């Protein structure tokens, strides 16, 4: 089967390579010529474990190519739209301009009877809007197949997904939906044969399944982070609390780990888009609920800064601080709405001398925030630190030796904002260890001058100049 995948970022590049590995002939199309050139050399333009191998397999079998030319999609029978749907610059709504542009670019090249399937995360009602764009091609079928992969495990999630969701015209039992269902069954035949659950529904349900899933995950994370604050206020320990809660099978332990909270290119913008959808549909309960989830999440960032200040006896100004982690989570180089970088910016704005390090995300972080100081080597980043903050829980930071790190720093103080270190082991080496929700009450003087409120990174402002540390080679791609 010949398939096109439009938009080759974190979602589309993985999807294209996965489809090729299933035996399809796939052309990936992107407007970013540098990204396409990178992919055509067999290398992912971003860090995603296992993707380079999948790309190389696709090229070896000659089933996978990438291009900027939409005409190369002309002989494909199924087209997947995987372009970005970022938060609008002026509101909480999703910016659908890339989805609209991609659909319009495909339109002149669609073969008779082609099927166009959206995978991007979109607000409810988007398919109806796209149907208008495709109105003069009644032979073309439209479907929606939301994607649930997670960066860091995207390849595995695509090869063995939890479920497949098909949004089709008329929904589950409608004859109008049969051609789209049949086309997607042919695309995913190996997964269906392997027993992956497949759910067929109408467009609104397919669109909402993705938004509701992300809203639930965000709710669970913000819930446990709210409990962390209660633990700090009461002397309880959130790790023990969540472990006990998670043993109840009705609750489960996943996404029940307290810490700095979520970020990235999906969850934050998706819950804000969900709020906007709820407002448009006059469902204030969902709007208010998501508002609380969002504000608890953002508050974890300023809370981390407050604990850091508390550990520095009330004054961040002039302190030498090392931030471990720049990516929004481990196993990715994605720095979109990274909580770690947000905290680093807030610490810097409070006058601390901040050095940020990360195993994979330094280049992206540097391009996004050139005013921060970056250091590629973990050891060099730690030299002379008066406070170490663990903000992205990469394995190499979890596995740091407190004795070895103790020889590099000036003061043995660590704020483990991801609650992943073995505090007893670190304390045994003479470290002062704090986490979030570990029962240590934060004595905060709100009047202190060096505290800044939580702000989204895009709006954060530095008040002092910074020297960029060890030069790192700039990547050729920009997202
Ligand atoms: N990243 C994830 O883990 C993930 C998971 C599930 C769903 N999603 C959703 O998938 C969508 C894409 O997310 P992403 O993280 O891959 O974004 P991304 O920014 O990494 O990739 C988007 C790509 O689309 C390309 N593009 C933009 N306009 C185009 C056009 N008109 N024609 C062709 N290409 C175009 C961009 O150049 C870019 O390479 C979003 O809706 C996101 O919410 C992402």
TrEMBL record:
Q: Name one Pfam family in it.
A: UDPG_MGDP_dh_N
| Residues reported to bind NAD(+) | 30, 35, 85, 121, 269, 336
The record's keywords, sorted A to Z, are:
NAD, Oxidoreductase
Which positions are catalytic residues?
266
Listed pathway(s): Nucleotide-sugar biosynthesis; UDP-alpha-D-glucuronate biosynthesis; UDP-alpha-D-glucuronate from UDP-alpha-D-glucose: step 1/1
- UDP-glucose/GDP-mannose dehydrogenase C-terminal domain location is 322-423
Q: What GO molecular functions are on record for this protein? A: NAD binding; UDP-glucose 6-dehydrogenase activity
Q: Which InterPro entries does this chain map to?
A: 6-PGluconate_DH-like_C_sf, NAD(P)-bd_dom_sf, UDP-Glc/GDP-Man, UDP-Glc/GDP-Man_DH_C, UDP-Glc/GDP-Man_DH_C_sf, UDP-Glc/GDP-Man_DH_dimer, UDP-Glc/GDP-Man_DH_N, UDPglc_DH_bac
Q: Is rRNA-binding set as a keyword in this record?
A: no
Which reactions is this enzyme annotated as catalysing?
UDP-alpha-D-glucose + 2 NAD(+) + H2O = UDP-alpha-D-glucuronate + 2 NADH + 3 H(+)
Q: Which residues bind substrate?
A: 210, 255-259, 263, 329
Domain of life of the native organism = Bacteria
EC class name: oxidoreductase
According to its UniProt entry, the protein's GO biological process terms are: polysaccharide biosynthetic process; UDP-glucuronate biosynthetic process
Alphabetical list of Gene3D superfamilies matching this protein? Cytochrome c1, transmembrane anchor, C-terminal, NAD(P)-binding Rossmann-like Domain
Q: Does the record carry NAD as a key word?
A: yes
**Which EC number(s) does the record attach to this protein?**
1.1.1.22
* Family to which this protein belongs: Belongs to the UDP-glucose/GDP-mannose dehydrogenase family.
How is this protein named in the record? UDP-glucose 6-dehydrogenase
Organism, per UniProt?
Arthrobacter terricola
